[in-house]
Amino acid sequence: MSLLSDASSDCDFPAIFNFGDSNSDTGGLSAAFGQAGPPHGESFFHHPAGRYCDGRLVIDFIAERLGLPYLNAFLDSVGSNFSHGANFATAGSTVRPQNTTLRQTGGFSPFSLDVQFNQFSDFQRRSQTFRNKGGLYAALLPKAVDFSRALYTFDIGQNDLTAGYFHNMSTDQVKAYVPDILAQFKNVVEYAYDHGGRSFWIHNTGPVGCLPYILDLHPEKTTRMDRAGCAAPYNEVAQYFNRQLKAAVLQLREELPLAAITYVDVYSVKYSLISQAKKHGFMEPLRACCGHGGKYNYNKNIGCGGKVKIHGKEVLVGKPCKDPSVWVNWDGVHYTQAANKWVFEQIVGGSFSDPPIPLNKACHGLHH
């Protein structure tokens, strides 16, 4: 496909390369640090499937819509097929490297965006060396040309904001390092372009102040609640991040003339879902479906699937709700499959994108 092709034609994306955090992790963290256990996966896969969700994520719906199989995590060596792309996202990932371990910081991943890019770069180079051996390798690895025809998807940055809050930073202190986060983000998009990437689909970050785990952890800082019951200061930082991200995308378009870069306003979609849940067919916007106790059904010590010992017996207390399909939040941090599907349906047509082009035309961009 030449980039001068007719903008009305659908793109034929043979592969997706995804970079991100738990919003799009299809098994990376599970492969590295132990599986996300039951009841994760119960609504669709009927067993844990490496996703922090009862079923599919937005990235799964993207793959389905493009006619591709679900993405395997790069870190998952068992049964993976990378012929249609690879997923470098891991739960807890940040753009900026965290200088602490997973255990110390309430679950931030060592696989920051620069590490994900190194993995991609290594994958690109080595996949071709092995593909040339033919046989099984040729069947399970992408063709060289697919790296320039693929869709590069990004959904990362939320954990950079929340990491600050877990270090007791104020919202102003977190705001102050947003430019640095975005400078590092831009570098990675430029590297991917240098490696042949041309079509980019970039999600902004969601309304952090509406997540049960943020509402639960910092009640003293959540005095400024908005009408939807979300903590306004946290959402203001997310919106500030998003404005800066959009500006970074505009700069990238100037610097990378052959790239088609779509900026997707997921924040607006998610906020609309939470603030008008009933209108959209959801009953529970702010409480976790799967959790234990408290105003938000969230307990940082007993998560979804959590057990406690009672009279020497392990008892499941982090139980899922009866019907996750009417809940927005799955486990206090992540969305349910139903919410992910709803979000996907809003963004796939391009009405929340800049430029306003649908997913299947994301190879065309603005240069026509």
From TrEMBL:
<dbReference type="Pfam" id="PF00657">
    <property type="entry name" value="Lipase_GDSL"/>
</dbReference>
<protein>
    <recommendedName>
        <fullName>Alpha-L-fucosidase</fullName>
    </recommendedName>
</protein>
<dbReference type="InterPro" id="IPR001087">
    <property type="entry name" value="GDSL"/>
</dbReference>
<dbReference type="InterPro" id="IPR036514">
    <property type="entry name" value="SGNH_hydro_sf"/>
</dbReference>
<dbReference type="InterPro" id="IPR035669">
    <property type="entry name" value="SGNH_plant_lipase-like"/>
</dbReference>
<keyword id="KW-0732">Signal</keyword>
<comment type="similarity">
    <text>Belongs to the 'GDSL' lipolytic enzyme family.</text>
</comment>
<keyword id="KW-0378">Hydrolase</keyword>
<keyword id="KW-0325">Glycoprotein</keyword>
<dbReference type="GO" id="GO:0016788">
    <property type="term" value="F:hydrolase activity, acting on ester bonds"/>
</dbReference>
